[in-house]
Design a protein that fits this description.
294 residues, mainly alpha, 13 helices, globular
């Protein structure tokens, strides 16, 4: 080739051209190394201190500038329960095992924690991009942080529920020991849904809007303010709803659950297992490449 003459496309060997084409097509494909299960779980467990710190910080920052501060944690569900109890006691009367305000509050509390938890955790990985792009940690930490942040306010709310039951002379006995099991199932379900939805939202940004659109019909399909026995033959289908078991187990702790409440609780446990089985391979496969899409 003469000096000073630029090579033409024809002058490049065909094999070299094909190689360059292959490199161009594959060099921008985002594929991270698939994480092994044990290191992934160990990483999440090792980050439990980080989860606690971030959850506590998020919880207090949320109410820092409010006039009555963290009292909103207890006040908001109480106001919601009071409004719903007053309205529905005027419109219609439900035969409930306990006084209607206790029945409503025992449904509002787990539903509020569950719905708020998944709604905020769905965008957690994307919203946490400033932190996630600076240092590596298991991305599951971000949605879990949102869930545990809400849990700080849920525990005192249960105390208010028990206090209201005592004031309204609801007999509380051994079923009250179901409260720890109720809290555990609620926490597990919210974490399982949050992990799956947060992962999907990284790739499908419509996920947050789908969740927001689903919250209202999901509320009415969960028997939050009415006994499922009023549904007749439809009850067994409504019990497939994963939120029903959460509500029924919490109600069982204060004697507000209807007959056969164990079935939806078992269904909720099945949902937890199924969602966990989905979440684990998602984070194994994509944990190290989420940051490339933020």
């Amino acid at each position: 080739m003469a000096a000073g003459v630029a090579p033409t496309i024809d002058a490049i060997p065909r094999g070299t051209s094909e190689q360059m084409s292959t490199i161009t097509e594959t060099s921008f494909e985002m594929q991270g190394e698939r994480s092994k299960l044990r290191p992934l779980l160990r990483g999440v467990w090792a980050s439990r201190g980080l989860i606690r710190t971030l959850a506590r910080k998020d919880f207090y920052v949320k109410y820092r500038r409010a006039s009555i501060g963290i009292l909103w944690v207890v006040g908001l569900p109480l106001i919601q329960a009071a409004v719903l109890a007053i309205i529905f006691s005027r419109v219609t009367r439900f035969a409930t095992p306990v006084k209607f305000p206790v029945f409503v509050l025992s449904g509002i509390l787990p539903w509020g924690f569950f719905s708020n938890g998944i709604a905020s955790a769905t965008t957690a990985i994307v919203d946490g991009s400033n932190l996630a792009t600076k240092v590596y940690f298991p991305r599951a930490v971000l949605p879990l942080t949102n869930v545990f942040s809400g849990f700080h306010g849920y525990i005192p709310s249960l105390g208010v529920m028990v206090a209201l039951a005592l004031v309204l002379k609801v007999h509380l006995g051994l079923p009250l020991l179901l409260l720890p099991a109720s809290m555990t199932l609620l926490l597990m379900m919210t974490c399982a849904f949050s992990l799956v939805l947060a992962s999907l939202h990284v790739y499908f940004r419509d996920t947050r809007y789908a969740v927001q659109a689903a919250i209202l019909p999901w509320f009415w399909a969960s028997g939050v303010i009415f006994p499922l026995e009023r549904l007749g033959g439809l009850k067994k289908w409504f019990e497939l709803n994963p939120a029903v078991g959460l509500i029924q187990l919490n109600r069982a702790a204060v004697g507000a659950a209807g007959p056969g409440w164990g079935r939806p609780v078992v269904i909720s446990l099945i949902w937890v297992v199924a969602l966990t089985v989905i979440a684990i391979p998602l984070y194994q496969r994509y944990d190290r490449v989420y940051v490339d899409l933020l």
